[in-house]
Design a protein that fits this description.
- This protein has a single domain, classed as Rossmann fold (3-Layer(aba) Sandwich).
- About 30% of the residues lie in helices and about 30% in strands.
- It has eight helices and twelve strands.
């Protein structure tokens, strides 16, 4: 069963109640993407797009002129197309039903400036198995894990292009190994904590294809303090970007 709601930036999002729904990981990844010059000329691809919400936010905020959203499951690819149309963004978001394990730049018609992804974060035998196969595929590495997503990004990107990802802190070794194997250097990394006294619940990374050694580690992002949001999180919610000190040079 699907439902439609308004989310950040006054976007309209149709989702499946029994599938993966819009959450803070998608919002933060869209905000973590670095603002840049010549936005209208910049191109990107989203891998594992789901309903396309990260692409909607990134295009709506003018971070890219065009995005190709790639989704394995036809049901969600259709939802992604629907969401682009109902927000008037179908000219800026193209949707492909495809498998990241085999996708190349030829399949999407170009090399791109950036790739972003919120990949499955559980190993095939990790966590509780989902009752619905489509949800299991979205959460588990059944049809590709972080190594497959990083390798696909390397095939799609121009040399020096950027890969943005959100992942689990307890799988940092897999995250780093996947990036190294695909020829990326992680250049920026931010841990996200629900509260200052809690361990991180996610990690955001920006990597460069063919990049050299050297990583910028800004302060962690704390989402809540007391009964409300922190100043950093409130800024992200309002502006659609992280505060400038999170981007570094």
């Amino acid at each position: 069963m699907v439902f439609t709601t308004r989310i950040n930036d006054n976007l309209i999002l149709t989702q499946d109640k029994q599938g993966l729904t819009f959450g803070s990981d998608a919002l933060l990844l869209a905000s973590y993407i670095r603002p840049g010059a010549d936005k209208s000329r910049r191109t990107a691809a989203e891998l594992g797009a789901g309903t396309g919400v990260i692409s909607l936010l990134a295009v709506g905020r003018g971070k890219f002129g065009h995005i190709t959203a790639v989704e394995l499951q036809e049901k969600y690819a259709d939802l992604c197309r629907h969401n682009a149309r109902q927000n008037g963004l179908e000219e800026k978001i193209a949707v492909i039903c495809g498998d990241v394990r085999h996708l190349t730049a030829k399949d999407i018609g170009r090399e791109v400036d950036a790739v972003f992804c919120n990949p499955p974060y559980m190993s095939t035998d990790g966590g509780r198995e989902c009752d619905k196969e489509e949800l299991h595929i979205a959460r588990h590495e059944t049809c590709g894990g972080i190594a497959d997503f990083a390798a696909c990004a390397a095939r799609l990107l121009k040399h020096g292009g950027r890969l943005y990802a959100v992942y689990r802190p307890d799988r940092l070794e897999s995250l780093f190994a996947a990036h190294r194997s695909a020829g990326f250097a992680i250049k920026r990394m931010t841990f996200v904590h629900g509260r200052a006294d809690l361990p991180p619940s996610m990690v955001l990374t920006e990597a460069r294809l063919g990049g050299g050694e050297g990583m910028y580690l800004p302060r962690p992002l704390i989402i809540a303090e007391g009964a409300g949001d922190t100043a950093d999180y409130a800024y992200i919610m309002e502006k659609g970007n992280f505060p400038s000190e999170y981007y570094g040079a």
